């Protein structure tokens, strides 16, 4: 049963209050054909909308099946509209981007009927209205009469008990009008049909009850209900539930009608994704390259342990950084104070002991290709230049021993990392190697010592075979009382039989794949030579004397042996003179990056449970270099991503605007869907589905374009760096980026979608 009790409805426009319905009371039978007549503006449409649950009454009551609708919730109204009511409008109100079959199916789709069932029923009702040959036409391919037939079919599809028709023939010619009226009469046989018309002739001809309205009031009713004699029958009300797939389907359909715009939108909003994807690919690739570079080449940098070392633990590093970057303001006092921030506290003095040397010698031999002990022992070297004997000042020259290997069979630093440009490796202690840098250069001091300064280009052949004379302490130093002086007669010194004639037998250069910072141009002598010099000189008179004396035997300077400095000074001069002692520094050459890690761990183990002053600080050059480079890479990546993110935000806003426009465009559709029983939730789902489609399209588009752009980017990089396929897009990053794109567009579309769902269905239907 359906009953209106003293229904009032008024509309406010500005200050003006328009009473559309005044105390309207009416009751309808379960099965009758009611025509409502009345002049324009008399409240007919308002009445119909209130009966259909599209509009809400201000006061009074609408009783459905003996139940007051005062306590109806949104979902009750939605279910009522969907199952119980079929609307037919003057302007047909078909969804233009869907074919007529889908239009008819819509109501059933909203109530969650299965697609097979929907199709069968839709075909059946389209057959009834005589449109079975036009199933796949779009509304704009039909005539007015045909469109109204589709609307009638749609109203019938869910088999509602009540059909509400608002001037269904208002836009049709008289011949078509009669056909439509016949159709409505036909369906009215077992339903309640309430039809608004301005045509009294049609009303009288077809309806079995005529109600007249004027100024919002009922002025006549040709067949009112007799409450006593007539039985009341109930209408059926089910439930609605649109699923997400339907929302996606609706949006896809809609998007198909504006492919160009959707594509451009997706393209525009994909720019941010493209940017980030490219940056990530590049930084990925560079990271990998750096990794490879590190593994291959940075391992060529030895681990350095020297007597005076930087304290490299985190705390001191941080303190040092703070002091360096301190921005304390300058004082304007007129006095000075003393500072307490001397760099000494960052310096760690390594006590290199024989125990530690033993520990070093026990490093796994597979991890080291060479160990170099740096000694400060002085060698007395002489060279004959232009017929004159000259002493070689070794202080400015880079002369060191060839790193020794820990086992007989391992190849050693020279074989592993150097190309022999000319000559060969030393086989006896008298033989030397000359290392040149990547440009085949050596310092001028070297050319000086070889007497080759006046030539611009020196042929390898000129260098190979060059001789240097080494003089031992006992020949070099002459004792004068308690003191020693260097022998002045250089010619005699030079020809002494005890001398060693050292000879350059090879020229070496670091292999091309190692970084040039690992090169160390200069002279290399063998360890055997070093051992021999130490064994000879440590027995020399000057060393014996110096050990006993508290004075420097060369300068006469007195050592203050009560102070650390004094002791150190005496030790230093003894070491210089060749007294065997622990080395000044150690350089460990690892086989590769992994072995470097193991060596570092091995050194850390040594420091465990040791007092601060007994710990050995080392410098892991490779680690310093690589953390520097990867830190810089990370910083650049973050900055670039931040920039690209701006375009993501812009596209998010853009999606918002575009969705807002879409909501405006589809207002009518929103009204239609609501009149068919769509819930607010369903409406927002439709728009969210649309943004979802745009988001996923733009994400995928972005990834595809970025992937394609990697080809030219990589070939450009190949030209620049000679490295192939640097930039690689990590699939995980791709997935994350697509998700971000979807997420951001959903955010952008959320407000418009919410707006759409809140639209008043009546107002929505009135928009054109
Ligand atoms: P009818 O269908 O009989 O022509 P309506 O029911 O559409 O009349 O309108 C009844 C009265 O209410 C009219 O005066 C109309 O201007 C007014 N009205 C209807 N809907 C609105 C609205 N949404 N806002 C303001 N006034 C409205
Ligand atoms: Mg009207």
Question: Would you mind describing this structure in some detail?
Answer:
The protein has 768 residues and is of the alpha+beta class. The two termini are 34 Å apart. The strands form 6 sheets. Strands 15, 16, 17, 18, 19, 20, 23 and 24 form an 8-stranded mixed β-sheet that branches. The chain folds into 3 domains: 2-240, Rossmann fold, CATH 3.40.50; 255-296 and 628-766, no CATH class; 376-529, no CATH class. Helix 18 (541-548) packs antiparallel against helix 19. The mean pLDDT is 86. The chain binds adenosine-5'-diphosphate and magnesium ion (MG).
Indicate the topology.
Elements lengths: L1 E12 L2 E13 L3 E6 L6 H8 L7 E6 L2 E2 L5 H11 E4 L11 H11 L4 H14 L15 H14 L4 E5 L7 H14 L4 E5 L3 H7 L2 E6 L2 E5 L22 H13 L2 H38 L6 E4 L1 E3 L3 H11 L22 E3 L4 H8 L6 E7 L5 E6 L2 E4 L7 E3 L10 H6 E6 L7 E6 L7 H6 L10 H4 L3 E5 L1 H4 E4 L2 E4 L3 H5 L5 E11 L11 E4 L1 H11 L3 H8 L15 H14 L7 E6 L2 H15 L11 E2 H45 L1 H9 L4 H42 L9 H27 L3 H6 L2
Parallel strand pairs: 3-8, 3-9, 6-7, 7-8, 17-24, 19-23
Antiparallel strand pairs: 1-2, 1-4, 4-5, 9-10, 11-25, 11-26, 12-13, 14-25, 15-16, 15-20, 18-23, 19-24, 20-23, 21-22
Helix pairs in contact: 3-4, 3-5, 4-5, 5-6, 8-23, 9-21, 9-23, 9-24, 18-19, 21-24, 23-24
The structure holds adenosine-5'-diphosphate (ADP) and magnesium ion (MG).
């Amino acid at each position: 049963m359906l009953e209106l009790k003293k229904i009032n409805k008024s509309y406010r426009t500005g200050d003006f209050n328009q009473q559309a319905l005044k105390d309207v009371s009416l009751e309808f039978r379960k099965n009758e054909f009611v025509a409502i007549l009345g002049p324009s503006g008399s409240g007919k449409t308002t009445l119909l909308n209130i009966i259909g649950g599209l509009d809400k009454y201000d006061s009074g009551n609408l009783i459905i099946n003996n139940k007051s609708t005062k306590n109806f919730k949104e979902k009750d109204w939605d279910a009522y509209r969907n199952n119980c009511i079929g609307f037919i409008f003057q302007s047909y109100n078909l969804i233009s981007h869907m074919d007529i079959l889908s239009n008819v199916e819509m109501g059933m789709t909203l109530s969650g009927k299965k697609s097979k069932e929907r199709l069968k029923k839709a075909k059946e009702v389209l057959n009834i209205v005589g449109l079975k040959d036009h199933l796949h036409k779009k509304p704009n391919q039909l005539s007015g009469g045909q469109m109204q037939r589709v609307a009638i079919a749609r109203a019938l599809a869910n088999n509602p008990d009540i059909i509400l028709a608002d001037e269904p023939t208002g836009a049709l010619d008289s011949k078509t009008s009669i056909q439509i009226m016949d159709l409505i009469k036909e369906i009215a046989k077992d339903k309640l049909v309430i039809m608004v018309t301005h045509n009294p002739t049609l009303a009288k001809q077809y309806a079995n009850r005529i109600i007249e309205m004027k100024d919002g009031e009922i002025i006549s009713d040709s067949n009112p209900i007799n409450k006593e004699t007539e039985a009341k029958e109930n209408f059926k009300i089910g439930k609605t539930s649109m699923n997400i797939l339907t929302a996606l389907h609706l949006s896809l359909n809609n998007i198909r009608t504006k492919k160009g715009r959707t594509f451009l939108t997706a393209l525009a909003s994909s720019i941010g994704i493209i940017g980030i994807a490219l940056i990530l690919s590049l930084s990925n690739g560079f990271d990998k390259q750096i990794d490879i570079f590190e593994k291959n080449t940075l391992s060529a940098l030895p681990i350095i342990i020297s007597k005076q070392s930087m304290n490299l633990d985190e705390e001191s590093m941080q303190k040092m950084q703070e002091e360096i970057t301190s921005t304390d303001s300058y004082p304007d006092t007129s006095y000075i104070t003393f500072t307490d921030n001397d760099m000494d506290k960052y310096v760690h003095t390594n006590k290199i002991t024989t125990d530690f040397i033993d520990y070093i010698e026990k490093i796994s031999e597979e991890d080291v290709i060479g160990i170099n002990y740096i000694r400060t022992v002085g060698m007395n070297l002489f060279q004959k230049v232009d017929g004159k004997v000259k002493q070689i000042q070794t202080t400015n020259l880079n002369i060191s021993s060839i790193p020794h290997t820990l086992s007989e069979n391992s190849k050693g630093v020279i074989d592993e990392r150097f190309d022999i440009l000319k000559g060969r490796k030393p086989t006896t202690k008298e033989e030397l190697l000359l290392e040149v840098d990547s440009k085949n250069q050596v310092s001028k001091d070297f050319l000086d010592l070889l007497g080759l300064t006046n030539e611009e280009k020196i042929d390898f052949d000129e260098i190979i075979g060059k001789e240097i004379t080494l003089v031992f302490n006992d020949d070099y130093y002459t004792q004068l009382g308690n003191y020693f002086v260097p022998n002045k007669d250089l010619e005699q010194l030079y020809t002494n039989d005890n001398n060693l004639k050292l000879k350059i037998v090879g020229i070496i250069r670091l292999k091309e794949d190692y970084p040039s910072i690992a090169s160390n141009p200069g002279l290399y002598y063998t360890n055997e030579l070093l051992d021999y010099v130490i064994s000879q000189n440590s027995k020399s008179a000057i060393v014996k004397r110096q050990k006993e004396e508290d004075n420097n035997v060369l300068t006469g300077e007195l050592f203050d042996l009560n102070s650390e400095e004094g002791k150190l000074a005496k030790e230093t001069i003894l070491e210089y003179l060749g007294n065997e002692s622990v080395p000044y520094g150690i350089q460990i050459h690892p086989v590769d990056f992994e072995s470097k890690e193991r060596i570092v761990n091995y050194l850390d183990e040594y420091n465990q449970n040791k007092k601060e002053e007994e710990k050995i600080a080392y410098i892991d050059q490779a680690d310093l270099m690589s953390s520097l480079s990867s830190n810089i890479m990370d910083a650049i990546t973050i900055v670039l991503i931040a920039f690209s993110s701006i375009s993501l935000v812009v596209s998010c806003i853009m999606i918002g605007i575009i969705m807002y426009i879409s909501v405006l465009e589809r207002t009518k559709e929103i009204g239609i869907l609501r009149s068919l029983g769509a819930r607010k939730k369903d409406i927002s789902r439709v728009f969210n589905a649309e943004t979802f489609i745009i988001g996923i399209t733009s994400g995928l588009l972005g990834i595809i374009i970025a992937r394609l752009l990697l080809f030219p980017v990589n070939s450009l990089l190949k030209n620049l760096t000679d490295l192939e396929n640097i930039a690689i897009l990590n699939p995980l990053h791709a997935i994350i980026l697509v998700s971000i794109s979807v997420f951001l567009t959903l955010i952008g579309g959320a407000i418009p979608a919410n707006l759409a769902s809140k639209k008043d269905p009546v107002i929505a239907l009135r928009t054109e």
